Amino acid sequence: MNLDVTWAKAWITTGAAVMNEHRVELINLDREIGDGDHGENMDRGFQAVLLKLDDLPAEANPGDVFKLVATTLISTVGGAAGPLYGTAFLKAAVAVTGSAELDGAALVALLTAARDGIVLRGKAESGDKTMVDAWTPAVDAADAARAGGADGPAILAAAAAAAEAGAEATEPWVARKGRASYLGERAIGHRDPGAQSSALLLRAAADTAAGD
Q1: Is 188 helix (H, G, I), strand (E, B) or coil?
Q2: Which CATH fold topology does 5-210 show?
Q3: H helical segments located in the chain
Q4: Predicted confidence (pLDDT) at residue 148 exceeds the cutoff of 60
Q5: Where are the domains of the chain?
């Protein structure tokens, strides 16, 4: 699949389905170390995005899709997830603004901008047991894949695999940011829900690019 507006819409459509499918899983993860609303919030936000995707003009590009996602999530998702994901997609939209089709360099720029937006908004860094721990490995893997000559779908596949590993790696850590940080060592053994939803979303990007 060409990584154009059709792909961007497919990614978000698939991402919405994945958030709905994993809603209870994300609720349970967040209930263990947070306030239990992450799955509900993510599902509600992406369902709201779905209702607006068809309103995009025919000449829309991927950046327009990501800007729509950003503004919708910010306005409909409560808790920390709305501002964090909203900022991520807004920065991603700016990074690829005006591009009709995304090449490897644009994908790396998109992922990097999204990660940097999360860092800016959440004031977190790698090792804090947050969604940054999925996004930073994803950015690094995408950049390495691009440098190795991988095409767009392979770059996204590398990013998704790294995000999944990063989310899993949060399980034995003590949280240093967010509500989970108040639990101290009681957060050990629990995966960060934001890292997990990030990994799910990046896998959706890779799967749609691969035509799965």
Answers
A1: coil
A2: 1.25.40
A3: 5-21, 23-33, 38-53, 62-76, 81-95, 104-122, 132-147, 152-169, 193-210
A4: yes
A5: 5-210
